[in-house]
């Protein structure tokens, strides 16, 4: 029997994975009117709202673009992640072109991910590495299933 996939919600609306990339052009004006540690009004979100004429939320690892009745989920590129960390810690967000891509098949919503019971590290001893979490930046997306908080909660 196939496991039923629970619909993911973001701000009360369903979430689907993106199919195509989008490119955001962050301008100095976007940076000037952006707010630190705020996924809906950072420089990248401002650029997305200006160019796409839609609500945009940019988290450290996920970007959401609102359509009429759902959110489309993208993977925030590493180049933008570095700028977000810098910006949230008090420096500037470098204006430029940022291409936001869809997730790979293995990272899409509903993709099979082994649980701790049936997946061990390569040595087979079940010991997990401690993860490092970047501090002093905006909150992580509450709907990011692949990242646990510091207490080990999803």
Description of the structure:
By secondary structure, the chain is α+β, with helices and mostly antiparallel strands. It has a domain at 9-104. Helices cover 17% and strands 19% of the residues. The protein has three helices and seven strands. The chain has helices at 28-32, 43-52, 78-88; strands at residues 9-10, 13-17, 22-26, 56-58, 62-66, 71-75, 96-100. The strands form two sheets. The chain has a five-stranded mixed sheet. A hairpin with a 3-residue loop joins strand 4 (56-58) and strand 5 (62-66). Residues 145-151 have low confidence and may be disordered.
Spatial order of the strands forming the largest sheet: 1-2-6-5-4
Quantity of strands, as a count: 7
Tally of DSSP helical segments:
3
Q: Helix-strand pattern, N to C?
A: EEEHHEEEHE
Overall geometric form: globular
Mean pLDDT: 84
- The proportion of residues in beta strands is 15-25%
Tell me roughly what share of residues is in helical segments: 10-25%
Note the main sheet.
Answer: 5 strands, mixed
**How many angstroms does the end-to-end distance come to?**
25 Å
- Pairing-aware structural class of the strands and helices? alpha+beta
The radius of gyration is 17 Å
Poorly predicted runs of 5 or more residues: 145-151
Structure characteristics:
about 150 residues; alpha+beta; five-stranded mixed beta sheet; two-stranded antiparallel ribbon
């Amino acid at each position: 029997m196939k496991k039923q996939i629970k619909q993911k919600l973001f701000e009360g609306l369903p979430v689907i994975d993106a199919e195509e990339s989008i490119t955001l052009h962050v301008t100095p004006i976007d940076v000037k009117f952006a707010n630190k540690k705020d996924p809906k009004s950072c420089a990248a979100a401002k650029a997305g709202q200006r160019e796409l004429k839609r609500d945009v939320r940019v988290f450290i690892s996920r970007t959401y673009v609102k359509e009429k009745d759902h959110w489309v989920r993208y993977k925030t590129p590493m180049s933008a992640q570095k700028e977000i960390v810098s910006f949230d810690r008090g420096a500037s967000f470098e204006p430029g072109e940022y291409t936001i891509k869809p997730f790979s098949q293995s990272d899409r919503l509903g993709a099979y991910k082994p649980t701790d019971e049936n997946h061990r590290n390569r040595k087979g001893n079940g010991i997990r590495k401690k993860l490092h979490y970047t501090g002093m930046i905006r909150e992580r997306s509450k709907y990011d299933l692949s990242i646990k908080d510091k207490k080990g909660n999803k």
